[in-house]
Design goal:
Layout lengths: L2 E7 L10 H16 L2 E8 L6 E8 L4 E7 L9 E6 L5 H18 L4 E8 L1
Antiparallel strand pairs: 1-6, 2-3, 2-6, 3-4, 4-5
Length: 121
């Protein structure tokens, strides 16, 4: 399924979508999407708290996975997370999200990302 990618950053130079760290996240998303067809994936930085991100997956069958990532500071690589997941997810589906989230955590602060959004369809 075709996807549209938007990646917004506060860096003065554009971020290459082929950069290794970014490519790792997209590869992990492709793996997840092959098992859990998605309509949208988004990581959005809070406008007031630049260390707070909302991470959301919306699936083709209507399920939503949402969590927050709260970094302690700009060097934090182990953020606090809260989860807002109402619909059930199989372990096989949940396990594939970990590499997506880990790669997102690795790029958000170093690349000053304000939003990552992929839309399938």
């Amino acid at each position: 399924m075709k996807r549209t990618v938007n990646l917004d950053s506060d860096l003065t130079t554009p971020i290459s979508l082929d950069q290794d760290m970014v490519r790792q996240m997209f590869d992990a998303l492709d793996q997840l999407a092959s098992i859990v067809p998605m309509t949208q994936f988004q990581v959005l930085r809070d406008a007031q708290n630049l260390l707070l991100y909302t991470y959301t997956i919306q699936t083709l069958n209507g399920r939503v996975w949402q969590q927050t990532l709260t970094f302690a500071n700009q060097q934090d690589t182990d953020p606090y997370m809260t989860f807002n997941v109402v619909q059930g997810w199989k372990l096989s589906e949940f396990a594939l999200q970990r590499p997506v989230r880990d790669s997102a955590v690795a790029i958000l602060l170093p690349l000053k990302i304000s939003r990552v959004r992929l839309v399938w369809g």
